[in-house]
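Bug: token stream looks shifted between consecutive jobs. Job 1:
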Amino acid sequence: MENPEEKTLLLATLVFPVCGSNVLLATKMRKIGAGHLNGWGGGKEPQDLSLEACASREFEEETGGATVEQGDLEKVGIAHFVNHKSDGTTFECVVHVYITSVWSGEIISTDEMKYPAWYDQRSIPFERLMLGDKEWLPRVLSGEKGIVRAEFGPHQQSLVGEVRFEPVDSFEEE
């Protein structure tokens, strides 16, 4: 069985709920990013007709039933994460990053994401996020759109090189 920290994921989404200058984050409990604060998301499944459908489905699954309409998702980033595995292989996971200020229902702790809490965007505890997030997350939360590139060592425990952020005005249609 594959080590959960070394899951090979090629295409995923990530949703950050925002309210004014605050962002809701929770502690990821499993798989890539376990133990770190993050938004809600996961891998695109065959039944997902679009990336927005994936983001909406993952948000509902990981928040304990809160829902976000696809039209209420604003794409703010595309992150290209190159991952080195302990067996020497690498893979690139492309993560489409969204923010939303509109959702229905209460966001609660689940087996996947625990302890949701609001953080002022100016005082996010970056030491509790995945490595490299401090280089790009504040920019997309403040309204800047961009392409992120980062490379991680095995188990995402180290960065290989610097995190790069390329501002863009818009994203090409998938």
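Job 2, same session, no restart:
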Amino acid sequence: MRLHPLEIASRIQEDYARYLQTIYFFRDPALRRQFQEALSAPHFLSRGPILEAAAPFRLGRSVEQMIQDGILHPGFRTLCSDALPLHRPLYLHQDRAIEKIVAGSRNVVVATGTGSGKTEAFLIPILDHLLREQAAGTLDVRASGPFSSTR
């Protein structure tokens, strides 16, 4: 079954108008007629669906390619899963941010839309740092905050 956004929007508006007519039944015929006219007026309940076309994000390297290029630690191969596929290309802005952070840039700003992978852009370098410390034998896990214990 294919859904057509314009047909669905129209059906939702009609269903909602019908619902409103049943819960607000005016005894006065003049008020009832005015209410029905208002509900059937164009753009009274909805201005229609808002459709937005956005260009896809440009693609960068995959985690595997970044490992091969010496940017990420080879231990990433053991961390990858369905949530972070080894061979799936990252977005270009993720690729660039990860490379800069791993190279030592202290200040990196990733300004992009919702759902575009900002979280991965900073988590991957953190995981890379931990993998490198583990490989060097210098990994010291520490926690602080309201739930940590000092014992």
